[in-house]
Write a structure and sequence with these properties.
- By secondary structure, the chain is mainly beta.
- The protein has two domains: about 1-30; about 30-210, no CATH class.
- It is about 15% helix and about 50% strand.
- The strands form two sheets. Strands 1, 2, 9, 10, 11 and 12 form a six-stranded antiparallel sheet that branches.
Length: about 210
């Protein structure tokens, strides 16, 4: 009986250690790295020990490109536009300012961009997101393809507005006609050929953004 109890105790200890190790590994894999765009910050699930974050600023926007250090592969680009004058006060009459942010899905053939347009308020060091005016997908690549079944949404990190944190996410399908691939091996990067001779691929993006204190 004592022998069975010792075996059971040993098995329990091993199980706990394995669970702890697995949990620690998962936490390490899900490490969040925060980068600043122009006025908005974004939380990225990329370990800075494994990825480079290349910041570029022009007169019209600020971008951060995430590059895997070992392979040189571009994982994503996140950006914030500086000029939002095309949004009028009729669209956002109560807005102190408008901020447009985006995140790119880039698989080497297609680039689908997920935009979010924010109404924000700031005074001194204080800032808040009043509301999200719009979220939408756009085709910004050079290839011939369409973005279909597009869905995009935003959620307040505090469950209400105004807030300092939002999550922006979306799903879509990239559709490419068989004769528009340009010789690119789409099957090798996750596209499926349909019976109508179109390559299709379901995609998704989603990051968390913060503004103000």
């Amino acid at each position: 009986m004592k022998k069975k109890s010792r075996i059971l105790a040993l098995f329990t200890l091993v199980s706990v250690l394995l669970f702890t190790f697995a949990g620690g590994a998962s936490a390490k894999e899900e490490q969040i790295h925060t980068v600043k765009l122009n006025d908005i910050s974004v939380e990225l699930p990329y370990d800075p020990n494994l990825y480079d974050f290349v910041r570029n600023e022009t007169s019209t926007e600020v971008t951060v490109t995430v590059i895997e250090r070992s392979s040189g592969k571009v994982e994503t680009t996140i950006g914030e536009l500086k000029d939002n004058n095309y949004f009028t006060r009729e669209i956002a009459p109560a807005a102190t300012d408008i901020k447009t942010i985006y995140q790119d899905y880039n698989d080497g053939f297609a680039i689908a961009r997920l935009y979010a347009v924010l109404s924000v308020y700031s005074s001194g060091s204080f800032g808040q997101i009043n509301s999200v005016l719009d979220t939408y997908w756009a085709n910004v690549g050079d290839g011939v393809y369409t973005i279909e079944d597009a869905h995009a949404n935003s959620v307040s990190g505090t469950g209400k507005f105004p807030t300092n944190k939002i999550s922006v996410s979306g799903t879509a399908v990239i559709d490419v006609a068989f004769d528009q691939t340009g010789g690119f091996d789409l099957a090798g990067i996750g596209y499926s050929l349909t019976t109508s001779n179109h390559f299709r691929k379901a995609i998704q993006k989603g990051y968390t953004y913060t503004y103000g204190n």
